[in-house]
Specification:
The strands form 3 sheets. The protein has a 5-stranded mixed β-sheet with strand order 2-1-3-10-4. The chain has 16 helices and 11 strands. It folds into 2 domains: about 5-140 and about 300-350, Periplasmic binding protein-like II (D-Maltodextrin-Binding Protein, domain 2, 3-Layer(aba) Sandwich), CATH 3.40.190.10; about 145-300 and about 375-415, Periplasmic binding protein-like II (D-Maltodextrin-Binding Protein, domain 2, 3-Layer(aba) Sandwich). Helix 8 packs parallel to helix 10 and helix 9 (about 195-205) packs across helix 15. By secondary structure, the protein is α/β, with parallel strands linked by helices. Keywords: Signal, Transport. This is Extracellular solute-binding protein.
Length: about 425
């Protein structure tokens, strides 16, 4: 495998390297690139590679940190030049795009022979597939969205429970809004980036009046329009701030932690930040996006795939299977504050245990974004439609119909799986 571009890139970037003295004469060398930059994730991947290298003599993994933007750029360039690692990390909604570019190798047969695919959550696993269902990697960690509630604010408004339906969420949001103190009943991110789409999608996929959950291919469905209408109504009656179009997910959590939002759509990773919550009782529940007792959410997380041209494909696959085993999936959830991608993995969290239980349950109702090679264009259509409703007052049905004018030709050419 060519190394010239790799060496130039790594010299320009901060790196985390792992090496171990090989106990056999010539172990198989495997290069792994990742963009874990949070301290827990970054240290965990170093420790795991070190552990794997010490457990056997035949394969030696070297892990290198590359910033996310640079790594994604390297995938794009490497698809043509062949300058790729043996194993590469990628954000789950982006994997289909890089599969279509030829960055990742089809390893379906080897993973099916492994016999453990049925133990993975369907959503995360599907993000590793092309439109024909072929697998190019495994989901290593996952997260999703649920609802955080200020229990004191709800109690003050006369509620002794968290919302269990979209109608109740809207009612509670209005009841807990205080215009004088600029405290809103509900907060979420509708920013014009992938973060916005990540948080918007659950409301378009909710079950309304017993309907089937809408897919990205049918956002003009009555249920999707009802979800968008609910968001518009909360903005229009003042129970959700119009600043949601500018807020990142971090901003949303900060609003909640500061007591400026009675309820907020947050991610699994925020459970590690609850020590910043300012003096009120809080709880978590499934995201109430539709009918009573129903929920929908969006999956986030990172995948690892075997890159095209890897000199030692079988060695790469062996490491992926170890890293994504039942035992290691549970371990990663604890050390990195994530949700295991396997249904049979147990993460024994020693903090926010009730919160993690909610998010783990929410994974049963969470959908992947795509997967699709043109996901960035689909995503832009979704967040642009939402912003037009909030900023310009566009009718929700009209805005979603406009989004489908962009989305439909894309998925007609390359269908969703």
């Amino acid at each position: 495998m060519k190394k010239s571009l790799i060496l130039g890139m790594v010299a320009a970037a901060a790196t985390l390297s792992v090496s171990a003295v090989a106990v056999s004469a010539e172990p198989v060398e495997v290069d792994l690139w990742h963009y874990f930059d949070a301290s827990a994730d970054a240290q965990a991947i170093v420790d795991w590679v070190d552990e794997y290298n010490s457990l056997q003599d035949d394969i030696h993994i070297t892990a290198t940190y590359v910033s996310r933007d640079e790594l994604m750029n390297q995938y794009t360039v490497g698809a043509l030049s062949g300058e790729l690692p043996d194993i590469g990390m990628v954000d789950s909604p982006d994997m289909a795009s890089y599969i279509s570019l030829g960055v990742f190798e089809d390893i379906t047969a080897e993973l099916e022979e492994w016999g453990e695919l049925e133990n993975f959550y369907e959503g995360p696993l599907s993000s590793c597939m092309d439109s024909e269902g072929n697998l190019y990697g495994l989901p290593q960690n996952s997260n999703c969205l649920a609802l955080a509630c200020n229990l004191d604010a709800l109690e003050a408004a006369g509620y002794d429970h968290m919302p269990t339906s979209l109608a109740e969420l809207q009612e509670m949001a209005e009841a807990t809004t205080d215009a004088d103190s600029q405290t809103f009943g509900f907060a979420m991110s509708c920013i014009s980036t992938e973060e916005g789409t990540f948080q918007i999608l659950p409301w378009l996929r909710g079950t309304q009046d017993g309907s089937e959950r809408a897919n990205v291919s049918d956002l003009t469905a009555d249920s999707a329009v009802a979800g968008m209408t609910a968001l518009a109504n909360m903005v229009n009656n003042g129970s959700m701030s119009k600043e949601c179009i500018n807020w990142t997910q971090a901003d949303v959590f900060n609003q909640f932690a500061a007591g400026k939002a009675a309820m907020a759509e947050i991610g699994t990773w925020h459970l590690a930040q609850t020590d910043s919550i300012d003096g009120f009782n809080y709880g978590f529940c499934l995201l109430p996006t539709g009918d009573e007792g129903t929920s929908s959410s969006t999956i986030g997380g990172e995948n690892f795939g075997v890159c095209t041209g890897a000199e030692n494909k079988e060695a790469c696959i062996e490491f992926l299977k170890w890293m994504c085993s039942k035992e290691k999936a549970g371990e990663w959830g604890v050390v990195a504050g994530k949700i295991p991608t396997r249904t049979d993995a147990t993460a024994e969290y020693d903090y926010e245990q009730e919160g993690f239980a909610v998010f783990t349950d929410e994974m049963n109702y969470a959908d992947a974004r795509g997967p699709h090679p043109e996901w960035p264009s689909i995503s832009e259509a979704i967040y642009s439609a939402t912003q037009s409703v909030i900023v310009d007052g566009t009718d929700p049905a009209e805005a979603l119909a406009g989004a489908m004018e962009t989305i439909t030709p894309i998925i007609e050419e390359t269908p969703l799986p």
